[in-house]
Specification:
Radius of gyration: 21 Å
Largest sheet: 7 strands, mixed
Strand order of the largest sheet: 1-2-3-4-5-7-6
Number of strands: 7
Order of helices and strands: EHHEEEHEHEHE
Number of helices: 5
Length: 191
Amino acid sequence: MHPTAPEHASSKAPTTMPKKHVAFRRPRIEDGPAIWKLVEDTPGLDSNSPYYYTLWFRDFADGSLLATVDGRTVGFLTGYRRPEEPDTYFVWQTAVSPRHGIPFLGVKLFEQAVEQQVARGARHVEATVSAENKAIIMVLKKIAKKYGATIETGVLFPGSLLSSASPDGAVATDDAHHDEILYRIGPLPHR
């Protein structure tokens, strides 16, 4: 027995939402102000200036990546190759705006950036993370697993070095900074 359709039901086939198209691209200097706004709207990220992101995208676009959905910028990642260790790719900052409609976009953005750098000879990936940032730690573990690489961790910069202190050396509780834990993944095989 089939249930009876409600009187207001249409005989038309159900419509599906159009599929959103995600693309990754190299940032341009004109992307700087929009990325600054995304950072300002993302809790927990260190704030910089629009000038900073504009300058970063002029000088370090090769290590950075934007995510767009149907042409609208919804995420970014900034990174660079370390001058003292050119085979090490350091990921500095990443964020994805909410309500973009693409599942796991932040993970895909990170993976795409790493793939590009591995194709260009990177053998290690580094990022600093607070111990409470479980989401990025999960992404880093996923990258290590994908490449069959190990992860080394340790404090790169203690929070006391990065905290705002008064002239007498006292740090206000709300100005305390967490330890920046370095995650180093590698060696990564060339693909």
